[in-house]
Amino acid sequence: MDQETLKEFKGLLESQLEALLRDAGKTVSEMTDDQSNFPDPTDRASLESDRNFELRIRDRERKLIMKIRQALERIEHGTFGECECCEEPIGIERLRARPVTTLCIDCKTEQERKEKIG
Ligand SMILES: [Zn+2]
Hints:
By secondary structure, the protein is mostly helical. It has helices at 3-33, 41-77, 92-97, 105-117. The chain is built from 4 helices and no strands.
């Protein structure tokens, strides 16, 4: 992959990471600010499930943040855009759609097939 394209992906990943970190910070402060009393048990229950929902979202965000950091590391190490399974280049269109991907479409399809059987 040429330097120009790498730079493009680096910028893309960095802005994604920034947006995620900003949102994650917002969620945390919203949760800690929220010390209000809910005398009605139904309100309390719905508040609890909202929190569970937020925590799940944050778990997914955390994983995505990790993936983006790993992708940025691959850019640094010059392995970005290589399939980690067969070491063939991952298609540029596939990378544009999902820059954190580590598998080419063939290996990904194979992996999903195995997961379905397993
Ligand atoms: Zn592959």
